[in-house]
Amino acid sequence: MRFLSRNRFVRGNIKLPSSNGPNGSGGDNPKDLLTPFLEMKNKSRVPVERGFIVRLFEQEEFAFELFPQFNSFQPQPFGITIAGGLPDEVIKVQYMGIAEIMMDHSEVFIGDYIYNAQTPGLSTRNNDLFTGAIARALTPKQEGVTQLIQAIIL
Predict the structure, then answer these.
(1) Domain range spanning residue 10?
(2) Phi, psi angle pair for 35, to nearest 5°
(3) What distance in Å separates the CA atoms of residue 83 and residue 146, rounded to the nearest whole number?
(4) 95 and 20 inside one domain
(5) 32: which DSSP letter?
(6) Which residues, 6+ apart, have CB-to-CB distance to 108 below 8 Å?
(7) CA separation, residue 141 to residues 74, 105, 138 (Å)
(8) pLDDT tens, position by position, for the chain (154 residues)?
(9) Sign of dihedral through CA atoms 66, 67, 73, 78?
(10) Number of domains in the chain
């Protein structure tokens, strides 16, 4: 469904500005405008940071929890947090596209498959398997540092 609202065409949660320059009403970064997300409640009982991997919280609608260490019997990852927040706070969760993902201390090369790490919320690389991969790295990262990388969500 499309409609016009304050010089913007709006479709769901995606807003396309009528002007994309510094004086335009929509901002300067078109990537931010096209990020598909849902606003969901944090049911993790701990604060979350930007770039954490999460899964659906099955006991409540539009809620998520941190994704624990990989276990094939657990529900699959759902998305990546766009911003940090406290427990029971509503936070934006990206579910597709190019995202900033918080990586553990492992080294990352462009093209590596990204999986959830042993630390809840963090991700790690592993090129031995493809099953269960949540993303594919678009930017590299040095070993020994916990930081955000850009990756495409699979």
Answers:
(1) 2-33
(2) -80, 115
(3) 17
(4) no
(5) H
(6) 114, 125, 137, 139, 140, 141, 149
(7) 28, 9, 10
(8) 444 444 444 444 444 443 334 444 444 454 555 788 999 999 998 999 999 999 888 889 899 998 766 555 556 778 899 999 999 999 999 999 999 999 999 999 999 999 888 888 888 887 776 677 889 999 999 999 999 999 999 8
(9) positive
(10) 2
